[in-house]
Amino acid sequence: MNDLVVAPIELEEATDSVAGSGALFHRDLSMLGHVNVKLDVHLGNAEVSVDRLFSMAKGETLVLDASLDAPVILQLDGKPIARGQLLAVGDHFGLKITEIL
Asked: Is residue 78 situated within a structural domain?
């Protein structure tokens, strides 16, 4: 029968500078600068019954659970990354970032 020999290895311990930095790698984004990402703005939620959902008609109002002055959430891939306030930019919506999460 073949014997399997496993050689021991030694691992280097992390130094304080690596362990305390908080980053797993240096953030050099120069190689990713051309990549586009899709951001979503989450305004609020509404809960309705299926009956109400299927009976909705054009022109009806759906009330969200967020107040008018509540911050909206900027999301990347469904994950919150910032909060901000909606504003008008010409004839489009814009988002003024107030907090990075």
From this structure: yes
Higher pLDDT, 17 or 40: 40
Range of the domain at 82: 33-100
DSSP 8-class letter at 53: H
Asked if 64 and 43 touch (Cβ cutoff 8 Å), the reply is: yes
What CATH number is associated with residue 78?
2.30.330.10
CA separation, residue 27 to residues 22, 23, 100 (Å): 12, 8, 17
- On whether residue 46 sits in a domain, the answer given is yes
Three-state helix/strand/coil letters over 34-50: CCCCCEEEECCCCCCCH
- State the pLDDT confidence band at 10, using cuts at 50, 70 and 90: confident
Label residue 78 left, alpha or beta by phi (over 0 means left) and psi (-120 to 50 means alpha). left
pTM for this structure? Answer: 0.62
